[in-house]
Amino acid sequence: MSNIDNYANKKENKIKHKEQMKELNLKHKTDSIKRKKKHNETKKLMKEDKKNLVAFNKENKKFLKDSKGIVQDKVKEVLTWYSENKEKENITKKHFKSKLQRAKKSMYDFSGPISFENVSYTYGWGTPFEFKALDSADLVIKKGKITAVIGMTGSGKSTLIQLTNGLIISETGRTLVGNFPIIAKTKKIKFVKELRREIGLVFQFPEYQLFQNTIESDIAFGPINLGADKETSIKKVPELLRLVDLPEDYAKRSPFDLSGGQKRRVAIAGIIAMDGNTLVLDEPTGGLDPHGEEDFMKLFYDLNKKQNKRIIIVTHNMDHVLQIADEVIVMHKGKVISIGTPFEIFSNNELLKKIEIEPPKLYKLAHKLKDKGLDVTDKNFRTIEELAKHIKERIK
Ligand SMILES: Nc1ncnc2c1ncn2[C@@H]1O[C@H](COP(=O)(O)OP(=O)(O)OP(=O)(O)O)[C@@H](O)[C@H]1O
């Protein structure tokens, strides 16, 4: 290459670099303006929400005052029980304290609907990384159902479900778990242990949280830590193992000798051991093979149908949603934009396009058939057998 060519190349590169820097600076500036605008909007929202928070706190105080009598009776019951039984070997101080704590929260019923009222949440408030993950979201998750939360990456699904057990607290509105209120900006949730006993949150790869020497102690750790009697908690382990489809005689084995899927079952058994009404699962089948995924879906379905547990599942797998969900919540940019049955959501092509989500395989097939002149998209189906039945009826 001649010196002249070399010089021309260098010059061209310099110009390109300058242009790229200019573009980057411009993007940085626009992002920063957008962020500031959002920051100010949220500030305004928080100001407007102040009067709601005052009303919520007032409502809560009144509720506590009205329930005083019930609580006092329950506390008295526990005190009498302890004074009559404290000499017995299996009645520990920890056991007594846990019972007393439960009596003190007896006015709360966590099992009812979970309502999110105008909840917002911002990560990195006031920093250059500020991001509003929840934007005045409103939603009710019913009791006893399987609810799937779907939406594109970053739409706020995980953030929303973390509000349910007080892992994070919203900056506006409130979350009601049954009649237990978590009011925005609360610094410390009273009865947080009871709340977490009721709402079991299972994160992605829960098996990484196993740490005890035996499967038995891992499963019983949660309830014992919350004050339950050690002997009773250990006795329940075989039943819990059966529930998650593991052999009972695994109890004394080390959890670290198990396969990934089996470890995950142990971790889930540990959450179920807390005996709450709700299981919240964030991408629970990540990293499993299709067969393992199917097994877990069956497990969650059975926990709902046979043990009456409310299941809330965040997932990107629409086939799973179709398979087990009673209701589907659609999140988009921090808001709930649609709620419906799997049929209502998956037959709505416009909605799916907006959230950039592919429908389950069976719905894709139905849409393809429609393009070829055989329309069964107005029919409700969950399985290949049901779809086949509708097709047969159409071509009769
Ligand atoms: N700890 C954090 N710090 C800063 N930003 C965060 C944090 N956690 C989440 N975010 C941001 O908030 C947004 C919403 O996150 P969230 O995890 O709720 O979304 P999601 O819908 O569950 O996404 P995915 O499907 O990818 O798990 C994301 O864009 C993410 O960048």
Automatic annotation (TrEMBL):
It holds the Pfam family ABC_tran. It is a peripheral membrane protein. The keyword Metal-binding does not apply. GO terms for cellular component: ATP-binding cassette (ABC) transporter complex. GO terms for molecular function: ATP binding; ATP hydrolysis activity; ATPase-coupled transmembrane transporter activity. Its EC number is 7.-.-.-. It is found in: Cell membrane. Keywords: ATP-binding, Cell membrane, Membrane, Nucleotide-binding, Translocase, Transport. Gene3D superfamilies: P-loop containing nucleotide triphosphate hydrolases. It is an enzyme of class 7 (translocase). Residues 114-358 form the ABC transporter domain. It comes from the Bacteria. Belongs to the ABC transporter superfamily. Energy-coupling factor EcfA family. ATP-binding (A) component of a common energy-coupling factor (ECF) ABC-transporter complex. This is Energy-coupling factor transporter ATP-binding protein EcfA2. It comes from Spiroplasma litorale. The lineage of its organism: Bacteria, Bacillati, Mycoplasmatota, Mollicutes, Entomoplasmatales.
